[in-house]
UniProtKB/TrEMBL annotation:
InterPro entries: F-box-like_dom_sf (IPR036047), F-box_dom (IPR001810), FBXL15_LRR (IPR057207), Leu-rich_rpt_Cys-con_subtyp (IPR006553), LRR_dom_sf (IPR032675)
Gene Ontology terms describing biological process: SCF-dependent proteasomal ubiquitin-dependent protein catabolic process
CDD domains for this protein: F-box_FBXL4
Start and end residues of each F-box domain: 276-331
Coiled-coil residue windows: none
Gene for this chain: Fbxl4
Organism (species): Cettia cetti
GO CC terms in record: SCF ubiquitin ligase complex
Alphabetical keyword list: Leucine-rich repeat, Ubl conjugation pathway
Protein name as it appears in the record: FBXL4 protein
Source organism superkingdom: Eukaryota
Amino acid sequence: MPPVFPMLTVLSMFYYMCLRRRARTATRGEMNSRRAIESNTRALPINVEIVQYAKEVLDFSSHYGSENSMSYTMWNLAGIPNVYPSSGDFTQTAVFRTYGTWWDRCPSARLPFTRTPSTFCSQDYVELAFEEPVYPTAVHILETYHPGAVVRILACSANPYSQNPPAEVRWEILWSEAPAKVNGPQARQFTPCIKQINFPTNLIRLEVNSSLLDYYTELDAVVLHGVKERPVLSLKTSMIDMNDIDEDEDEEKFACGMDNLNKQFNIVTLREWPTNGYFDKLPYELIQLILSHLTVPDLCRLAQTCKLLYQHCCDPLQYIHLSLQPYWARINDTSLEYLQSRCTLIQWLNLSWTGNRGAISVSGFSRFLKVCGSELVRLELSCGHFLNETCLEVITEMCPNLQELNLSSCDKIPPQAFNHIAKVGSLKRLILYRTKVEQTALLSILNFCSELQHLSLGSCVMIEDYDLIASMMGAKCKKLRSLDLWRCKNITESGIAELASGCQLLEELDLGWCPTLQSSTGCFTNLARKLPNLQKLFLTANRSVCDTDIEELAANCTHLRQLDILGTRMVSPASLRKLLESCKDLSLLDVSFCSQIDNRVVLELNANFPNVFIKKSFTQ
């Protein structure tokens, strides 16, 4: 009988390799998921665990609340819980700007970028700073209403409170999962099984996807557990899931591919291959079509296989539409430099979320646009905190064909810098949500950019006279189809009248949380009569909306698809029935906190109009 010792040695080595892989990549999945490995790793020696709430909210992409208030803002995530374990809609929580798929079904919806990797599904983010840097052992997220939006948790190597910024900023994914539907809106403590990392952190980032939610998700607090000394994994590990090993390998390949952006995009000499196989027999166009389905990291790897595929992977036609947002953590000046020669024909570019903490410099961004900006039609720069006046000046000079510009939450751009946008007369879409654009610059933009069709001015707090802005829109922007005036504080019936008279092509209008509009002035009736093409109308938190307004909408705006009248006390069930009977395309009706619309009425309306999502929020 042959000895068994060699076989035992092989098995031991395989088990050791599995442990090493587990130490590097850990697991993903919710605490109750089968795929969450029950590793029970124990630190040797034992450290005292530190438990801390977020000290400060450093950055975020959007929030429901106002810039001058605490209600429904991301700043509520700092400190101890305000609401948990209670469930319901509370102003003391953190709420993002959107939920569900409603924003993708309205006239202002933008076409998605192709080639977005399936592993990236994040729509919003928030970054939280903690007092003490620790090696994380657990992250608890206290969700108080419609949980299930968090899809990724990351840790950063940079200490936001350090006087000496690091030469290199690293982000590591602690946990990641695809969006999943959670049954019920009740509060919960979400504690996914996180990966162990090799650096201490006091900067945690949550990324969310609210597309499967029936209403806004509300977060109350985040708790970081960790130890001061780096844990050493013990060998006592139970139950390794082989499926998890395969998925971890995919993650390693993904990270490797992104590193290639900086290291291997500029390979000039390739190993000599005697043949390119069957690819030599395929038409050039067919190979291009096949490669068009690959992500950017896949193109990086494929370019290293042979000269023929290197040529295809570097063809500027492969980069007509390019989104670097999924790789925001690894994009820097070097990445842009290596991409320059491949992006000479680029038309759509998404740099949202990239470049922060010094990763992209003003000079690096300017060099890239000077080479690649001439054909740009669409430029997405949401949350680009490296942007300044020089960057906007370069955009307007180097991108003469630009039609769409997204500067959402670019709150570091100085007010006077927005004057440069007026030079881009071809603009059709401009998103200035949560920016510091001031009135003079905006008036100049409206005067010279008469082709505008979509304009977002939500939460722009530095505009003193919205009536003047609305008057200019009515006079100059005749092609306007969608307008976001969310939380505009001073527009009155005069501005609404000018807007409705001049912009009669409007299909979407957001007047949510505009407290100076009163139904008694006839402003909403005027809107309904002048704007028959309306498909989306948000009158959120306007308590003066009444039956007359709803009946005017029913009579004049029969194409209406989405209506938000949250908070009104003056609308009766009878007027809602008229609206639902008249507007056959209506799919969303938010009557949360409408005092005359109780749960019994909602159930009745749901039964009679099953194709309409009727939302009634609650507070316990």
